[in-house]
Design brief:
424 residues, alpha/beta, DNAb Helicase, Chain A, Rossmann fold, nine-stranded mixed beta sheet, 15 helices
Length: 424
Amino acid sequence: MSTNIKLDAERTILGSILLDQRRLYDCAALRPEYFGLQAHQQIFAAMLALNDKGRQIDTVTLTDALGDKADAMILSDLLNGTVERPNVKGWAEIVRDAAQRRYLSNSCQSVIAKLQDPANDTDGLIDEQESLLLRLRAAGTVQTARHVKEVMPTVLNEMVRQWKHKGELVGLTTGIETLDYTTTGIRPGEYWVIGAAPSRGKTVFGAQIVASNACQGVPSLVFSYEMSKEQFVKRLIPNHSGIPAEKVRDFRNARETQIKEAGEAGAQIAQWPFWVCDPEGMTAHELCAVAKLHIRRHGIKLIVVDYLQIIDGEEREIRTRVGAVSNTLRSLAKTEQVSVVALSQLRRPQDENERPTMFHLKESGDIEAHAHTICLIYRPKDEQGRWSGCDEIIVAKQREGLVGSEPVLLDAHRLWFAPRMGKQ
């Protein structure tokens, strides 16, 4: 496409908005930086600012808004040849497409230049380019409001589908039948937070959620910041074999039958649609780029992140950083319509048997606001300082359901939470 056609498209869009301010809403896909001419970028940015303030857009208000940047000749030229009812959406698509091509060309040239330096890591450059491409695709998405009559059929159809399949779980399983009944499972688009004080079983519960779904063929992805890929996968073996967790951790004195049993369990787990990443220094935005890549390649439906407070970010203050990370994961669940479960540390209680609440979520109150559902692990001890066996999963928040607690028991040999009969 020639430069003249692109500039004509830009002039037509800006001139049309001057004629009818409502045309601005036909340009929802555009940003100021999409315009090729710097003067056009400045004019469009000024138009957006005036509209946001509820002011009229015309040559007078634009000249005032632009100040020293104003060019009377360019402003008057915008109206020359502009038809009364142009196809603004079509011209906006031309401008957006041209901007995306420029962005793609520049990013490719940047990578090519970096490839000339042997010191640059190839895998890092590939990751950088993938992240740029995902950002480019996201920038081309236009979000518009839909009338309720368009949305209602989807809502009613989903309700009828649930009614026809009364015995089926609505979302993905937690691996605990009683908790599934209370919450209806982890639904697509939902962001869950599993909170626990250190050494109370949050990673066990996260691994249980992954294993319970992956073994049923649900494509699952884990970001394990706290432990290596091998350490995380090793935690799956005790529950899918008869080998106790403590034996799996130290296999030096294993019996020959246990070696065979571990091999069989490992072969079974290896068939699951399950991917695990042990990032070092990966920010939340980089995590999302990797997650979206796997969603497109492998159809990922479940993402588990272990754990919130350890993820890097640009924010220096830890409360701000954790809040930003949590919001990024919430957005990932919503935009990609996948189930996202983030593990979170709770503050160490002053009393070991203090029941956790959402106020114990470490570092950020934003976590509470972002999550659809928050489950807190409670494991009290007896007078001798041993685990009492009266464990609970406390549903502290459920945006569309009841809160309460489910009696469970953490089997330390199997590394698995199971329902416990009777509340105590």
